[in-house]
Design brief:
alpha+beta, 60s Ribosomal Protein L30, Chain: A, 4-stranded mixed sheet, two-stranded antiparallel sheet, 6 strands
């Protein structure tokens, strides 16, 4: 099993863009930048492409909004980050970043568990990832 944490705000997979000038379709720079960051942190954690099915677990933590800071710790329901990016697009971007580093192709992912949360007050935004061969 391999696990690592990516610091910073999680990024969802952006919609493909069309360039009228060149007539090509491209992925937004912010998306490719975050996918490269995922690959880098996975590689630094010792990830090498595995054969066969894999399980991926991901926890996406967004920074707690300054307007919602409180003296008490927030309840569990308050920590759920429902209004942010779609969880499927977060997972898609993560899997694309892991492709070629932790596994050869994202078709190898047989089990995917993803959660999105607001980080505890005062804790930074981050993404925690675990990848294991089945």
């Amino acid at each position: 099993m391999m696990q690592f944490t990516i610091p910073g705000e999680p990024k969802a997979k952006g919609r493909p863009r069309f360039s009228a000038k060149s007539g090509t379709v491209y992925t937004p720079k912010e998306t490719t930048s975050w996918e490269n960051k995922v690959g880098l942190y996975a590689f630094q954690a010792g990830a090498r492409p595995v054969e066969g099915a894999v399980e991926v677990r991901a926890q996406f933590f967004y920074e707690w909004p300054k307007s919602k800071h409180r003296k008490r710790e927030p309840r569990l329901a308050e920590r759920m980050a429902g209004g942010r990016d779609d969880i499927d697009n977060l997972a898609k971007c993560l899997l694309d970043g892991l492709q070629g580093v932790a596994f050869h192709n994202d078709r190898q992912v047989a089990v995917l568990h993803a959660e999105k949360w607001r980080a505890l007050q005062g804790h930074p935004a981050r993404t925690h990832v675990e990848v294991r061969a089945l």
